[in-house]
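Page 42, continued from yesterday. The earlier attempt failed because a stray header line got pasted into the input along with the sequence. Redoing it now with the clean sequence only.
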Amino acid sequence: MKSVVQLPSSGAQLYPLLGRIAAGFPSPATDHLDRRLDLNEHLLLHPQATFFMRVKGDSMIGAGIHDGDLLIVDRSLEATSGRVVVAAIDGELTVKRLRRRGKHIVLQPENPAYSEITIGEDRTLDIWGVVAYVIHAP
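This time it went through. Structure tokens are written below.
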């Protein structure tokens, strides 16, 4: 992963919300303008505790997280077993699924080409936050 993006402090950009879209027969979009859409309102559950990270690699493709995707990470969400988290292992950042197995903590990739990372006493683990949303790269 690379680059942490800071949230703007004010002046959120509003985008047009055109309403619902038919997956079958097409309809004119201009007749369906509902209101302006603030993505912060929908994607930032806790704005003061939220940051963004861009994914590099394919270890989480089974969870729908692909190379180049943008992660919306929330530090205020509880990192419980089964959640996808951004973690620092011995200072190196990664995104993995958190698993608690008895007394052990395991970071599990969602790609069979990668191995699980078991956190032992010889390693340091810092959970930076829980992945709240994924925005797919084009």
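Notes: The two ends are 17 Å apart (CA to CA).
Reminder to self: strip header lines before submitting.
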